[in-house]
Amino acid sequence: MRMKAPGSPNKSTITLTATVDVRAALTCIKSVGMFGFFAVAVMVQLRNSQCDLSKIAEQMKELTMENSKDAIVVDDLVWYNGRPKTSPTVGWEDDWMIRWKEENYDPKQRIGCKSYHEVATPYESEMLCTVPAYIPARLPKQTNPATNATKIPRVIFISWMTRDIGPKMYTSVLSLLNFNPEYELIFFVDDDIDQFMCDNYPIDTNNTASSSITSEFSILKSGASRVDVWRMMMIQRYGGVYLDIDMSSLGPLPIRNEIDTAFSGIGGWGHSPNKLGGVLEHWALAYIPNHPLIDATIQQIRWNLRNWKEYDKGGKYWVDEDDYSFTVSLTGPGPYQKALHDLLAKTGCKRAEEEDGTESESWKETMEDPKRYCGEHYSDFIKTFGTNFVITKLNFNSSVALKLLDYDSDTEVLGKHYDYDGYMPGPVDPNFCSSKSFRQRRQAFEKRWKKALEGSDSNDGDVDV
Predict the structure, then answer these.
(1) CB-CB contact of 372 with 349 (8 Å)
(2) Domain contains 282
């Protein structure tokens, strides 16, 4: 750990002021040069979405190392018409979300990083970066499709254990903000996720035999599994865009918010029974509220959680043990892709044929050309998936990139709380939503953070509750 040295001088600060065009404003940052703060400098490199991703990743790694001990703090974003004094209500929110935004928006809070000279940090880069819980859209007021429940709201949901993150993860978040200024950003931490589940899908403590998704959610100990469930519940309830926090923008999101009802990229592999091709990514989702595929995914997750022991290693869900991941098959992306396959089969759609005449194991071709592979059942496909279910190449047509950097140095310092298979489920906890249970979970994280600052193994003696 690096502690702030007494009397250490503050580092230089760059403040970005409002300009006519947010993306054009990035050009101004070139004056910082490649030796300025790495996250901002890299944004200039990312403006060209045709860049060689491996080269971008190498540049980002070099910049991280180069600037780790001499950080420049970027303490603001580019705003049009000034920063709003109160959290704006756009139209997609319900009362719970309006209240959350009001409680978590601080117009004085800035996004940025500090070096170990100024603040204690557990990250090996010797920097600590902070992202606010809520960042409003920074473009002038415009018609937002959120007022129409059939369209995709302009809001990006991300999550992590803490908003005090390492510089690599921060770089990814900053890229989302810089390339998509018309979107709000909502950053949930574990406590927010649990509160969302408990408030909106409460456990009936007077009837332990009754089941809510929060009852089933309470068995999960892996942070990755909890986020798998939460992302689907958020997208079902509100619609919008979900992205893993290690996704980096290479350009603006290509979603046509006023037209599209669902938007997903195609992955070349999948996690589903008998290893049928998975097709859709769950690390990058964009949907209208209450989309049938998200509804079906949630039902599949709930079934999985009620029968989780069948998904333990050696269970019937997988054929090839060498490619097994318990979390992937239990909560995601397995259930998302299995729900897709089940809906496609229910509509009467077919998979493509291989050269030998046998049916393909993948639904990829079906999703790319449903009119051809659904045939007379195409109208049923439209009823289920919508007219404007946009299927793109991997990662939203390469407008975002997954894990450009080696994020382990930013994540492993806090232990294996988010590992895929680090924690097995436990029994249903009827007291999961009690104030005592919330307090215990917060204390467990504070203990993990303290150990990370001390440089010890943050899992030693740690018990998740």
Answers:
(1) no
(2) yes
